[in-house]
Amino acid sequence: MQVIPLGGLGEIGKNMTAVRQESGIVLIDAGMSFPDEEMPGIDLVLPDFSYLREHRDELKGIVLTHGHEDHVGALPYLLREFNVPVYGTKLTLGLVRPKLAEHGIKKGDLREIKAGDRQKLGGFGMEFINVNHSIPDAVAVALRTNAGLIVFSGDYKIDLTPIEGEPMDLNRYAALGQEGVLAYFGDSTNSERPGFVPSERVVNETFNQVFERATGRIIVASFASHIHRVNQVVEAAKAHGRLVGVTGRSMIRNVQIARELGYMDLPQSMYVDQRDINKVPDSDIVILTTGSQGEPMAALSRIAAGQHRTIEAGAGDIVIVSAHPIPGNERGVSRTINSLMKRGAEVLYTPLSRVHVSGHAAQEEQKIVLSLLKPKYLVPVHGEYRMQKHHKDTAISMGIPEENILILENGEPVEFEGGEARRLETVSSGMFLVDAGSVADNSDAIMRERQQLSEEGMFIVVARINSKSGELLGPPDVISRGFVDPQAQNGLVDESVATVTKTLERTAQRHVTDWSELKKAIRKDLAGLLSEKTRKRPIILPLIVEV
Amino acid sequence: MQVIPLGGLGEIGKNMTAVRQESGIVLIDAGMSFPDEEMPGIDLVLPDFSYLREHRDELKGIVLTHGHEDHVGALPYLLREFNVPVYGTKLTLGLVRPKLAEHGIKKGDLREIKAGDRQKLGGFGMEFINVNHSIPDAVAVALRTNAGLIVFSGDYKIDLTPIEGEPMDLNRYAALGQEGVLAYFGDSTNSERPGFVPSERVVNETFNQVFERATGRIIVASFASHIHRVNQVVEAAKAHGRLVGVTGRSMIRNVQIARELGYMDLPQSMYVDQRDINKVPDSDIVILTTGSQGEPMAALSRIAAGQHRTIEAGAGDIVIVSAHPIPGNERGVSRTINSLMKRGAEVLYTPLSRVHVSGHAAQEEQKIVLSLLKPKYLVPVHGEYRMQKHHKDTAISMGIPEENILILENGEPVEFEGGEARRLETVSSGMFLVDAGSVADNSDAIMRERQQLSEEGMFIVVARINSKSGELLGPPDVISRGFVDPQAQNGLVDESVATVTKTLERTAQRHVTDWSELKKAIRKDLAGLLSEKTRKRPIILPLIVEV
What we know:
2 copies of one chain form a homodimer.
Chain A: E1 2-7, E2 16-21, E3 24-28, E4 44-47, H1 50-54, E5 59-63, H2 69-72, H3 75-81, E6 86-88, H4 90-102, E7 110-112, E8 118-121, E9 124-131, E10 138-145, E11 148-152, H5 170-179, E12 183-187, H6 201-213, E13 218-221, H7 227-240, E14 243-246, H8 249-260, E15 271-272, E16 285-289, H9 299-304, E17 318-321, H10 330-342, E18 346-348, H11 363-373, E19 377-381, H12 385-397, E20 414-417, E21 420-423, E22 431-435, E23 438-439, H13 443-456, E24 458-465, E25 477-481, H14 486-509, H15 515-534, E26 539-546
Parallel strand pairs in A: 3-5, 5-6, 6-7, 11-12, 12-19, 13-16, 13-17, 14-15, 14-16, 17-18, 24-26
Antiparallel strand pairs in A: 1-2, 1-20, 2-3, 4-22, 8-9, 9-10, 10-11, 20-21, 22-23, 24-25
């Protein structure tokens, strides 16, 4: 039995792990991640499917632990290529279904499970265990394999007073521990954090205080998928007699799904369509919105910029940014907060106000899980190396031998046999970038090119050349893009023309008519000039026009 | 008397404020800031000098509060245009001097002052008051003007047990308060933080614990200008019998300046040049380095990537990242930490270890200053709006009337007359981008162009045209850069050729020989095709070659 991590190790996002034995492969999660600042123009990032393609016939199905994008976002792309059943809880599948429809996948084989269920798939025995997280209906997955029992935590925290549903099923973990767990694949996201993450319920206290004193509008931004958080807003609205307006595409959709599937008790009489929000007095409404990460096009950012079609915020209003900025989003979030404050709104955000708690287990929770499961091996997943490493340190402090803790990277498989783990040779892994619906298979080259375009600029040289003699006909045209100083640039254009002319005179003397050689010579000489004069290394594009 | 903020309000960085009365203008600080993710290829950002150019003859001198880049970095650019005296403390001028030399400014009129000094400049009485900050020799500036006494805090914290020098001169602030302060321009950087920032000395305890237990190399990354922090490393090295190696261009330079000027007691016998670091046993050396912000080219990043010319770090070594990531740098810092950990080094960083304290006053310190100075007006400076706003709230809690707290933006002057403040009309302010030594005066257009190049890509069309008839000679060439999917792109190239051919056939029928009209038609039709097929809006560059 082998476990092959294909995403989510050494990184945050695009979680995907294959479990393989003679009887087949089961895939745990199929997540995406978001582009970082080194991926201009990219919409989203997918795990590499190469390994799955190479073992196409073995893939028996996909198991989703919960409905967050970093666990389900790659599914539409995966189902284009692989026609296999998908297992998930009611809410998870409810969130997945419209995404599949958007991608034109009409009849995915979606199979609903619930915590406590046991199923067979591809020769594995699957069991789903209730865990708490920042979305309802999240599960851990235990797999009974030929080599033994292994457990995937999914994303989890231990919330003993959850907003809805049950506390994490620690009793079942204890029973699995009694049965004997060969390997545990545990969420490492918060493993740098000491202590115990507070219950989601503490946010409720803050919300109630705010609703108590608010006289104008209340606007709450959170992740659209954070149904618990949204439900807390709805409950506060009920307690304080406010209606609930909803804006932001994904917030509107998720509220609809949660209501339809019974995860949100928001009667129609309380629901206000975004077009009708201005008809309700400010003191009688709370508005749910997207944009807690400062994303430039999200509803809250548009409200902050005064560019939302219907909703304004100003003096007397209270805006709650009910999320923590994901690393990389700090500046965007700060811009949004500044703009809202300039409009006169009061803005509440972490860590200054207790308007958010994490959905991932901290160190003491990790210790509780390790003490219940008593796994022989720990593989820290879902996290950058520093988080995997801290998870490891925590496990060592619990007495798990260091050699039984495997910090793996994407593409580094482990084989379990006779109760022992053994590392195998690396398989294809990595990332694929999605740009305007197309999946790039030369991501690195394209991203380097885009960065060079934006940081170094571009010089285009058009030379008209006698195709017989290789002689230059008139001065070449030089056009630049992305260069800073137009005055310096003008001088530079003249010098570039002179340089290219000289280059082509030289090649004409040698009767060079091989255009690739001409282009190479132009590139070399012009790059020399530009680097000397501007310290820049623009992309140089010589165009030879045959006359 | 007018105060004209030209940088540092509503933002972090490029602090610069003009104070003006009939007798002349004095400029407080001349700082730069660093580019954000929306400024690809930019080296640094300067304040707008337009206002100063318009009042060229009035400018009598520049006062520097301390030697950090966000307070002195624009000076070389300013002194190119304005030949005025510059006042600063010994260390501040010591740090400024080599920067001026780099820019070819040999004989700047630098005038050394020290805390406690009083001077006359441009009809103002200047007084310098000792403050604590993350660099020695920092001062606040009190100006006696025609309209009354005003105080500029500079960057400050109250450190009652500083590493070197004296605690902030609270007695002098009390005396100024007795005299009567018309307006106080106070550092807002940390005004969101409750309480009191700990003394720099607490870092010493952590350092001593680390030096006590370390058996391999110790590597400490900090801001090169954080002479206090560097001195704490030097003192720990002395106490534990380690030599001090230095790497990173600015760290080497600043250590040299600090030693020469008497701000660092590091005897030559303890100093190890970076070329000789490998000659010293790991257990006998501590290495000071740049790169605490994860800057890709800095020494620590190169060590982490295994690309430093001489220095390696691995198992048994301890790396201390002795700084807090500036917003926007979180991912870079995280990358560095991950890479160092993967090499086996132990890495200590905030908030997990107490290896850094801030250099900016928190709320209780701000309250102490307000209670001593008792200013009639408060102008919160050095900070984004959210920080200015919190500074305001703190002041209100101290009893300063709300209408006497002025949250200004860059370019919003205030006039003081008869003890009253009055807002004036906005003046030119903003930012100028420096790219490879050139200052851009069309920043917005260039940045939009660069972003479009990197996010949307570029399409170049070369059409050979009969200059008489406007007829197309052969199919046009279409070349793209920055597009993702080469396969889709090939199809796209064919379709683009067809579209452009059709466009030019149409214009030839109408005998269009106005090339700008041709280009416009090509742009329009091609943009339509590309937007429909790819949802992208690349830069389209039609090149007409006359034959």
